[in-house]
Amino acid sequence: MGARENILARIRKAQGRPGVEPTEQERALVREAVARHEVGPQPPFAHAPDRLAQFRRECERLGTTHATVASDGGIPAEIARYLDEGGLERRLAGWHEFAGLDWDGAGIAFDDRPATSQDRTGLTGCFCAIAETGTTLLLSAPESPKLTALLPETHLCIVRAARLLDTMEDAFALLRREVGEPPRSVFFVSGPSRTADIEQTIVIGAHGPYRVHVVIVA
Amino acid sequence: MQVVETDLGEYILQLAHEPPSHIVAPAVHKSKEQVADLFVAAHGKPRLTDIPAMTREAREALREHFLTADMGVSGSNFVIAETGTTLTVTNEGNADMVTTLPRIHCVITGVEKVIGTLEDFATLIRLLPRSAIGQTIANYLTLTTGVKMPGDVDGPEQMHIVLVDAGRTKLVGSDLQEMLRCIRCGACMNHCPVYQNVGGHAYGWVYPGPMGSILTPVYVGLENAGDLPNAATFCGECAVACPVKIPLPDLMRKLREQQFDRKLRPWAERMAIAAWGFAVTRPGLYALLSGAGARIAKWMGGRDGLIHSLPGIDGWTKGRDMPAPEGKTFRELYRRRRDSAADGAR
Ligand code: SF4
User: Fold this and answer.
1) Chain B nearest C-alpha distance from A127 (Å)
2) What is the mean pLDDT of chain B?
């Protein structure tokens, strides 16, 4: 017997079950329990009356800045404003999804490719966003490289208001409905990276971005 | 093989060749001056003592490693059975780099981390960051299911998951089974008066504080960690703070019982407890002995009411005096008060 069998046998023995492998009946019970996808207790504000307000409030608590534009057409101008305000270069590496916007018109150089460590700003979309915690959820796929959200010092994220959900459980339900099995990486981003490892002093910007700016498309 | 820690706190400790002193804030015992010295030696750059600048220096040093490492090794706070998913929870973003950039990703975690569904994860992740650092959510959560897919530009080509037992299954079905629920948030040590005074290193192993006082004896053997279940005031704060409601003081008490039964405590201590156990189950005898004890102790206190030395257990009085009792037992005082109240009512 290998280590795996030994470990499983020990657990089964301690639980008073015979053998090494679960019986067909036990497996069926587990499958049934999993298929129920039972939702546990949630805090009262998990289903806030004003979802967008809740999302914005949580973003602010985590140090994520946000702005709202009326349509996709308004995205480049908002991003130009944000970059100028922070004294940042008007250049970014972004997801292909946004390559068709009028970046030239806003005076921004848009590189349609995954960001590298050399890029100062990365632009991504998201699969959905979660109001309870001010979180955006990014799924790995050829057109949505994760590193664009992680390597540059500034992460810009476009959130469509229609894709804003209440809770993480809602996000998992949407994932099952639209995608099925989770892809390789399901990445939840909630604000800029931080650490408090030296003298418990909070420093924004550890390994990931120093700044996260969310542009909500109403 | 060169192995580099990527969490800032763990990186500092790797440079210092020291073990962690806290499970969430591993380098909490280091001052920024000490960290500055370590960085000068490791990075060969001018000494910085501004914490944000020091953090940036470490970020730049570690970024190189992220980009060039052949293999990334991560843990997994939970393992989701439904989807075969492992996951990381960080504020720094280090684990997200480690699980995305290198060609090979290796996960090492305990067998007890397995949970059922994505919904179970949603429930537990509401607890972990709140109890660990007071945030509603950690800045980065990465759920990893398998390797890079065709067309993906990032992600590892190979992934290996190692589930470790190393004593964990001993807890299944035992008196201490509830300890398997631990989500490693650190709240119990943050609220522990003993941990606050002695610090994490005094616990002698990777898990300090109340959770360590239970896990360490299980993993290394009670005979090798006998002081740990006794290093508690039983104030109960840890059980109140624990988000998964592990009755930590009760479990420590069970370990003390095991020590007594397995004769792992000194002979004199066991005799004393046995004698006390004999007396306390016989109320008449107990009243007699405690009454005599209280009077003797009062006499020992002398004029200043302080006992300066206790025969046989003088370790207690070496560095401090013990206040002498009043000479009456609780039961005597209680009876007297009850009688005088009855007189007053008459
Ligand atoms: S015992 Fe409870 S409080 Fe302590 S680390 Fe584990 S889950 Fe957190």
Assistant:
1) 14
2) 94
DSSP class of B188: H
* Ligand 1 atom closest to B181 (CA): 7
Which residue type is seen at A64?
T
pLDDT at A81: 98
pLDDT at B200 over 70: yes
Instruction: Name the residue with the closest Cα to ligand 1, atom 4.
Output: B188
Whether A79 and A215 have beta carbons less than 8 Å apart is answered as: yes
Residues B192 and B232 in one domain: yes
- Tell me the H-state helices in chain A: 3-14, 24-36, 51-62, 75-85, 147-150, 168-178
Query: What is the extent of the structural domain holding B15?
Result: 1-68
Q: Identify all chain A residues contacting B134, using CB atoms and an 8 Å cutoff.
A: none
Which domain-ending residue is among B232, B265, B298? B265
| Sign for the pseudo-dihedral over CA of A172, A177, A182, A186 | negative
Encode pLDDT of A155-202 as tens digits.
999 999 999 999 999 999 999 999 999 999 999 999 999 999 999 999
Final residue belonging to a domain, choices B164, B196, B219: B164
**B12 Cβ under 8 Å from any chain A Cβ:** yes
Task: Write the single-letter amino acid at B148.
Answer: K
Q: Which residues contact B343 (CB under 8 A, 6 or more apart)?
A: none
The protein residue with its alpha carbon nearest to ligand 1, atom 8, reads B185
pLDDT tens digits for B283-299?
A: 999 999 999 999 999 99
Ligand 1 atom closest to the Cα of residue B179 is: 1
Whether residue A217 contacts residue B149, with contact meaning beta carbons closer than 8 Å, is answered with: no
Distances, alpha carbon B273 to alpha carbons A10, B265, B313, in Å = 35, 11, 14
Nearest CA in chain A to B50: A198
The tokens describing B49, both together, are 């003592």
CA distance B36 to A15: 51
A9: helix, coil or strand?
A: helix
* Cα torsion through B291, B297, B303, B304, rounded to 10: -120
CATH topology of domain A48-217: Rossmann fold (3.40.50)
Residue A190: its chain B contacts at CB < 8 A? 137-140
pLDDT by residue (tens digit) across B81-129? 999 999 999 999 999 999 999 999 999 999 999 999 999 999 999 999 9
Taking the centre of ligand 1 as the mean of its atom positions, its distance from the CA of residue A58, in whole angstroms, is: 26
Neighbouring CB atoms inside 10 A of B146's CB total 18
pLDDT at B281 over 90: yes
B152 vs A contacts (CB less than 8 Å) = 140-142, 145, 184
pLDDT in the model for residue A1: 67
Q: pTM for the whole thing?
A: 0.91
B328 touches chain A (CB under 8 A): no
| Helix and strand numbers, DSSP H then E, in chain A | 6, 12
